């Protein structure tokens, strides 16, 4: 099963995704695929908070900021994989260390195809993403390009997913699919 999970900052999406991953993998491995680059103290605290929250949930944590396909050999084929999170992964791939920006069209296809390949590699896949589209702010051209690309990936990944869930204020709402395999009252 492939589940796409989105929501705003501090919406409960990570907690919901972690609990769902645990529920889907009672007798199989759980992999937490972390994409964050720890660049400052705030990010270090956020990562520590997430690590503490999943400490007793039996996740093998794999950290990979770019080229996620390169980590596939380390993922058991019967695993439930929780990828946290799409915006970090996209930013890591789009904004290179030398200040250049990758071609958005090529990057979109690469990330989409890598996500589909990961879906085929594991038993269950949950991809967590952020809703960064409702602040009403107009950004510079590069940031707008990033936001548009993330939006297109949301549409494509939610379309390819078996289920899509939106979290708001700690509550999960099924936007697509899931049927009896997906209980929303895990939060």
Largest sheet: 7 strands, mixed
Q: What is the end-to-end distance?
A: 19 Å
Q: Which spans of ≥5 residues are poorly predicted at pLDDT below 50? A: none
Structural class: alpha/beta
Question: How do the SSEs run, as a string of H and E?
Answer: EHEHEEHHEHEE
Helical element count? 5
Structure description:
- The structure is a single chain.
- This protein has 187 residues and is of the alpha/beta class.
- It has a single domain (2-186), classed as P-loop containing nucleotide triphosphate hydrolases (Rossmann fold), CATH 3.40.50.300.
- Helix content is 39%, strand content 22%.
- It has five helices and seven strands; from the N terminus they run βαβαββααβαββ.
- A seven-stranded mixed beta sheet has the order 3-2-4-5-1-6-7, sandwiched between helices.
- α4 packs parallel to α5.
- The mean pLDDT is 91.
